[in-house]
Amino acid sequence: MQSVSGIAAPRKWAAVAVLAVAATVAQALGEGADFDQTIDEFLWGPEVALVTATREEQHPFEAPATAVIITAEMIRQRGYLDLKDVLADLPGFDLSTDVYGEFATLISQRGIGGNNKLVLLLDGEEFTAPSGKQFPFGNNVPVSLARRIEVVYGPASANYGPDAFGVINIITRDAGEIGGLDVESSVGADATWHGAVHFGRRLGEDAELTLYGRRYVTDGQDLSGKYPELAYIRSGYPEELVAKRMVDPVRDWNFYGRLKLGELTLGLMHSSYHEQLADGLIPQHYVYDEEAYWGQSISRLYLQHRQSRGRWELNTRAALAQFEIDPEMNWFYLLEEEGRFSTLKVHQYGRTSSAVLESQCGFRYSERLNLLGGLVLEDITGLGVGDVYGEPFDRNAPLLIQNYGVSQAALAARDYGAYLQMKWRPGADWHITLGTRYDYNTIYGGTHNPRLGLVYRPDDRQAVKLLYGEAYIAPSYFDRYETWFLEEYGHIQNPDLQPETMRTVELNYARNWSGLLETSISLYHNHVENLIVRRYYGEVEMSDPFVDANGDGRVFVEWSDNFGQLDSYGADVRGDLFLKPGFVVHLAYSFMDGENTDPNTGEELDLFKTSKHKIMGGLVWTLGGRLTIAPRLRWVSDIATRQENALYAGSRMPGYQVATLNVRLKNLIEGLEAQLTIDNLTDARYYTAGVRSESTGYLPRVPQDGRRVMLGLNWHPSW
């Protein structure tokens, strides 16, 4: 008998049994373990400070935000391979893996979906696309270099400007913490390999160099046998054109370099994402081909200067960034006329570049009053997304010669920003943060985003926070100017697109219970207006001969538009039980509900690709200071789908539960550790919600990987 999630009943509870047995074994074997951290040091790191919320160090209980810190030790203990693994264990986050490369990992925070709605920072420097383009920064973001990862919930445009519906800041280890050269590597089935190299060296009293490189490759699991109902061999289509295998090959690499010379820092970061499209797409539109792939990259070069003099601190930074779709990226379009089939190779291209200059000044007026302000200037240029047929896009050739689907040869905008923040402590128990930022963009005009944080700390062990903030999502060049046409279907530009806006109210209570248990509960409400969505307008008159593929002057089109609003509300609960020696239990629960306006019908719908209930839990125990065993379990309730979903049509599809086990053994020899990670421990069959219907070439439900075993060896001579 099957459960609602499609997992046999005995298997359904297998992961729960793993956790229960683990707890029993931990209590029996944990005596005598070397584990002398306090709960604050374990949860927040040695600094016991949060930087991202206000750009200044604060105790997390005093910061005007709800935040989670993932320390380097947590990353190693739990076996996190990338940022996607980290976020999957946090309350308030929904992750959805789709089969089309551009949308491979979609992240939703508290019911608000979109990777472009989170600002990703690396040592405080933005690492997301300057265009606002959705970048699948789950698989391809380094975490092994992290000293800690700060995840700040809620709007942060008062400090960080556009796209800051939430902020993730990866704070890396410095050269002294690396202590030379260390290496991490792991291998698994399906030609899966992960390798990372870290190098850090002090060059003098005030100089240091840090280098990092990572490579991740996999052929992907063949899911055609595990999910035979999705091996779509459809009548009427030539068998050789239909995908026989359902795989998801990935080729990612990252680089990060940082040189510190006193108060001056020079850094370079690059992330490249490459995913093949030969992954079982329904063949009405796309044809299986091993050469088809989606590729995109982000590069950023930055310079930072920090200077402190008495009560004053001046920070100046300059950065150059570029986002680019790989010009070799391609897929095959299947054409049918009178029962005969042919293919057309389609390339896609787009890029944006930005230059940023920011000056920030902090002034500590007294022990109770801090002021922070800054000015930002950003120039953005680029091309919207367009299709190229036949040969790949040539960066040096004229756009019209290549039939590139964008009317402008180059697009340019300038953004002026100014912000001010005041942190005031009127009494021993109260912490008040007031902030505001104004941005003016030469294309879409001005936006104003305030924030207010009231924090009451009756003692060192607890805090009550009342938070209000606003944020906005800048319409990307790709949203505004993406233009392409093929056969009877196309996408047209909308240069009048306006920013999305967000308002959030949140109440948070956090408490440390006698150094053994730390809990946090948040209640929130988000309201988003001017949602940027794709709307479908049916057939319209088109006069361009290139567009008029049908020869009748009409084509079915879509475009990006501001339409409707979104409301989400819910609760996030976290608890960490800290039992000496070396035994920690972590548990989180999320409730989230809300409604979203359908962009085409105006109907109020459930929040797409989100679940109302999620439970994440696990434990970590250390034996003798060397062996760490860390099982985890994630349970997700039913998932909302879109109206056009072929199987569930706007209803809710079954949820799932999946377990992970990580085992780490330190000091096989001095500095060498071994690691075993098993994802989907019970080999469960489960799905996430697909984007569209079968008829549009997308899967209505997306199968997820089965059991994956990874074996790793890590060399850390400095540990």
Termini separation (Å)? 50 Å
Query: What's the count of strands?
Result: 40
Percentage of helical residues?
Answer: under 10%
Write out the CATH superfamily name.
TonB-dependent receptor, beta-barrel domain
Helical/strand content category: mainly beta
Instruction: Give the CATH level 1 class.
Output: Mainly Beta
Q: Give start-end ranges of low-pLDDT stretches.
A: 1-15, 21-35, 279-286, 539-551
Radius of gyration: 25 Å
Mean pLDDT: 81
Number of domains: 1
Percent strand equals over 45%
Q: Give the name of the CATH architecture.
A: Beta Barrel
- Largest sheet data: 22 strands, antiparallel, barrel
* CATH-assigned fold name: Maltoporin, Chain A
From the spread of the alpha carbons, the general shape counts as globular
Number of helical segments with 4 or more residues: 8
Quickly describe the structure.
By secondary structure, this protein is mainly beta. It has eight helices and 40 strands.
Task: Write a structural description.
- There is one protein chain.
- The protein is mainly beta and 719 residues long.
- The chain has a single domain, classed as Maltoporin, Chain A (Beta Barrel), CATH 2.40.170.20.
- The protein has eight helices and 40 strands.
- The chain has a 22-stranded antiparallel β-barrel. It has a five-stranded mixed sheet with strand order 1-7-8-5-6. The protein has a four-stranded mixed sheet with strand order 23-24-28-27.
- A hairpin with a 2-residue loop joins strand 16 and strand 17 (340-364).
- It is globular, with a radius of gyration of 25 Å.
- The relative contact order is 0.14.
- Mean pLDDT is 81; it is low at 1-15, 21-35, 279-286 and 539-551.
